[in-house]
Amino acid sequence: MSMSVPITNSLPYYGSKEGSDITVMLNCKAVVEKKNFIATGVLTYAAGEIIEIELPQFGVFELGEAVRIMVYTGAGIYVFQSRILAKAESAIVIVNPPENRRRFLDKRQEPRVPVQASAQVLSIFEGPRKAERVLSEPLQVQLDNISLTGTGFVVDMELPLQINTVIKLDIDLGFTLSCRAEIVRKAKEAAGLVYGSRFEELSAEHTGKLRAFLLRSQIETYYDEKRRRKMEEASRGPGSSSSISNLMDSGSYFTN
């Protein structure tokens, strides 16, 4: 049920507990508030940077629209500001902002997203002064995952890269992400040599593009999985597969 009311900024955080697992919010009552409108639904998914709330009035909300969220859980009432990322199947998908994510047990700086993409190591910074050695032939690597703070990649041969080595990368994500990264992990696994790296610095432009890519990837991955589950359910009885009615096509507002 929805009702018309003005948005106020007087709602407190109600002493909700820090350190709970994020699953404490699942299947809980969620109130979504925008200017002159409130709708009530159920929070059905929360992982990484996205949250899904099922509610009948999903069509009232616009992509990119600012909303206030109140989630009523056994650990307290979680209140935070967000934006609409996508809407489909009688549900909306919103941003799970950093200030809300930090209240839960997963303290990773930024969500890590699985990715199938290629990258080139263009140069290696060596020695105490980090003198740049440009490679005559760039090293081709396959990305395994990426976040706003770093990336993991896999190679099938030994590379002259050790912990604390700094490299220059060109990453193909549909756009070229050029950056410097420090190797922070090296391990031999079944897939090959696995490296973990931390970005040293990203430009504002690259940060905005990468954030939009990460959010879109999380939304698409979730809806692909949801579609697969519904198709499996449909094959066992009455039902139909799902589809995304609207998906945000621009990440410009994430850069603000």
Structural write-up:
The protein is built from two helices and 13 strands. By secondary structure, it is mainly beta. Helix content is 14%, strand content 46%.
What labels would you give this structure?
13 strands, mainly beta, elongated, 256 residues, disordered C terminus
What is the topology?
Elements: E1 28-34, E2 37-47, E3 50-54, E4 66-73, E5 76-88, E6 91-95, H1 98-101, E7 113-126, E8 131-146, E9 150-155, E10 166-172, E11 176-189, E12 192-201, H2 204-236, E13 246-247
Antiparallel strand pairs: 1-2, 1-4, 2-3, 3-6, 4-5, 5-6, 5-13, 7-8, 7-10, 8-9, 9-12, 10-11, 11-12
Structure summarized in a few sentences:
This protein has 256 residues and is mainly β. Helix content is 14%, strand content 46%.
